[in-house]
From TrEMBL, chain A:
Pfam families: Cytochrom_C_asm. InterPro entries: Cyt_c_assembly (IPR002541), Cyt_c_biogenesis_CcmC (IPR003557), Cyt_c_biogenesis_CcsA/CcmC (IPR045062). It is found in: Cell inner membrane; Membrane. The chain crosses the membrane at residues 21-44, 56-84, 91-109, 129-149, 161-181, 201-221. Coiled coil: none annotated. It is a multi-pass membrane protein. Belongs to the CcmC/CycZ/HelC family. The keyword Cell membrane applies. Keywords: Cell inner membrane, Cell membrane, Cytochrome c-type biogenesis, Membrane, Transmembrane, Transmembrane helix, Transport. PANTHER family: CYTOCHROME B_B6 PROTEIN-RELATED, HEME EXPORTER PROTEIN C. This is Heme exporter protein C. GO terms for cellular component: plasma membrane. Its main location: membrane.
Automatic annotation (TrEMBL), chain B:
This is Heme exporter protein D. GO terms for biological process: cytochrome c biosynthetic process; cytochrome complex assembly; heme transport. The chain crosses the membrane at residues 20-39. The keyword Electron transport does not apply. It is a single-pass membrane protein. PANTHER family: HEME EXPORTER PROTEIN D. The keyword Hydrolase does not apply. Required for the export of heme to the periplasm for the biogenesis of c-type cytochromes. It comes from Litchfieldella anticariensis (strain DSM 16096 / CECT 5854 / CIP 108499 / LMG 22089 / FP35) (Halomonas anticariensis).
Length: 246, 67
């Protein structure tokens, strides 16, 4: 078990294994998002109350899921980095944060656009909306802290601490719709219970959610590999690899 | 198919501005991340190669000096 963790933590081992995994996640992402988009935009039936504006759900919900999952990922990576000093975890955290911020922005933006025809307002200081806005600022904080120190290690540790503390916001986001029932509706998509929407609407949403997760994994693998090369550029294996590459 | 024609599809039953704005911003950010990641990798490899070449040529110059 420990040997496995340390092997996983070796940048070279990660670099090699991720090269083999990456194409599968890209292929899955492309396929799932393509099918999910066509299905969701053109084939799923219009909502009986919201008409076609409900089709925003197919980008809104997957982005909101990812926004929260990526932050949990950041916190886990930060913990692994701080406790076991595994550098790859910190590299992954460094590349995950900007995508998490982008996903949070997509969730907020698509939600606002959706709110205009549905709620008659693009913004309200509702608990869900506010806690998502806080998540966006937490992402900005994590990204800014990382770059705010002269030494990279200090930046990594500061960003890790904020990620581990900030993760408290995630359960708040999740339960905000139940604790303070103001504007945003409770979760309409869960894997565990029976769908609360017709299956013809639910299937494309499932595909989109899985597609967004695949995209996130593929992009994180790709960018972590770049980060490994950058940070390990003086290591023997990286120099050999660069030379072999031409 | 939920729409009768291409026009109906594009009009989204009057919700075109909302649906297409949300989708286009999402697509732009995701494609942007992909393009950025590719450019990042390419320029990084270019830099590393240049460094490696320079390191090697310095090494060979030192060897010449030694003789």
């Amino acid at each position: 078990m420990w040997a496995f963790i340390h092997k996983l933590g070796s940048p070279k081992w990660f670099y090699d294994i991720s090269e083999r995994l990456q194409p599968w996640f890209w292929a899955a992402a492309a396929l799932l998002i393509l099918v999910g988009s066509v299905w969701g935009l053109a084939f799923a039936p219009a909502d009986y109350q919201q008409g076609n504006s409900f089709r925003i759900i197919y980008v809104h919900v997957p982005a909101a899921f990812l926004a929260q999952s990526i932050f949990v990922g950041l916190a886990v990576a930060a913990l692994v980095f701080m406790v076991w000093k595994i550098k790859v975890a910190d590299m992954a955290a460094a590349v995950m944060a900007p995508l998490g911020a982008a996903m949070t922005f997509i969730a907020l933006f698509s939600g606002s656009v959706w709110g205009v025809p549905t709620w008659g307002t693009w913004w309200m200081w509702d608990a869900r909306l506010t806690s998502m806005l806080i998540l966006l600022f937490l992402y900005f904080g994590v990204i800014a802290l990382r770059g705010a120190f002269a030494s990279r290690d200090s930046g990594s540790r500061a960003a890790s601490v904020l990620a581990m503390v900030g993760v408290i916001n995630i359960p708040i986001i999740k339960y905000s719709v139940d604790w303070w029932y103001t504007l945003h509706q409770p979760a309409s998509f869960t894997i565990t219970s029976r769908p609360s929407m017709p299956v013809e609407m639910w299937w494309p949403l499932l595909l989109m959610v899985l597609g967004f997760y695949s995209f996130f994994i593929a992009l994180t693998l790709m960018r972590t590999r770049s980060e490994i090369l950058r940070r390990e550029s003086n290591k023997r294996w990286v120099r050999d690899l660069v030379r072999e590459d031409g | 198919m939920a729409f009768d024609s291409l026009q109906a599809f594009l009009a989204m039953g009057g919700h075109a501005p909302y649906v297409w704005t949300a989708w286009c911003v999402t697509a732009a950010l995701m494609l942007g991340s992909l393009v950025h990641a590719r450019a990042e990798r390419r320029s990084l490899l270019r830099d590393l190669k240049r460094r490696e070449r320079r390191a090697r040529s310095e090494l060979s110059r030192e060897e010449v000096d030694d003789t």
